[in-house]
Design goal:
With 210 residues, this protein is an alpha/beta fold. The protein has helices at residues 2-11, 24-32, 63-78, 89-100, 121-126, 152-176, 182-206; strands at 38-42, 53-54, 60-61, 106-112, 127-135, 147-149. α3 packs antiparallel against α4.
């Protein structure tokens, strides 16, 4: 499986280095290296802590650990919350939003670990807005049965597209009724309000420092 994954990533254009046994320090070093654009991990997970990477040495790396590394990298550009006190309130809120949403920008991650996709915490900690994360909602076995997940921004954009399509469908329904379908009209208004909220959240996230 590891060799197949190596070939897949090479076919995607990545220069791949295979390391048979890694420590938590090795993983941290690779993730924090700006030259690392993608990675795959084969190992054990944790049913109770989604996305955990467990090494043969018994060390665990969680999405929370990776988020802290992303915050440390962000701090090199915008500082840490304790030094923002005297900033303009709007700028302080913008930086705090960026801090709370800090993540790396990997284009591709494959995690062959159990429960790597039990929730989206690891996706949100690692993946670029246009990146691809493949993992497992439950057990991972000896073949690739992974599923794809998107980060928070990607999920919001999918939601926006769904709302847009729902609005179009209802609009067609309303037009067919001659404009007299009160239930469809009411639902359209609710969908449009939700659309505006999601779009505003997307614009807010896209404006955050990376």
């Amino acid at each position: 499986m590891i060799d197949a994954q190596r070939k897949k990533m090479e076919a995607m254009g990545y220069q791949v280095t295979v390391v048979d046994t890694v420590s938590a320090h090795d993983i941290e070093k690779a993730i924090r290296d700006p030259q690392t654009k993608a990675f795959a991990f084969f190992g054990h997970g944790d049913e109770n802590v989604a996305g955990t990477m467990s090494t043969l040495g018994g060390e665990d790396i969680t999405a929370g650990d990776i988020k802290e590394w992303a915050q440390a990298a962000l701090a090199e550009r915008i500082g840490t919350p304790d030094i923002w006190r005297n900033l303009d309130p709007a700028e302080r809120r913008k930086r705090m939003d960026a801090w709370n949403n800090a993540h790396f920008n990997f284009k591709y991650v494959y995690m062959h670990t159990c429960y790597s996709l039990k929730d989206n915490s690891m996706v949100d900690a690692l993946i670029a807005n246009d990146g691809e994360f493949r993992g497992y909602k439950a057990k991972a076995y000896l073949k690739d049965e992974s599923v794809v997940a998107k980060n928070q921004l990607g999920r919001l954009e999918d939601q926006l597209n769904r709302l847009r399509e729902e609005h179009r469908t209802l609009k067609a329904q309303l037009d067919a009724s001659g404009g007299y379908d009160e239930a469809a009209s009411k639902e359209m208004k609710a969908i449009y309000q939700e659309f505006l909220k999601v779009r505003a959240e997307i614009e807010k996230m896209k404006a955050l420092p990376q």
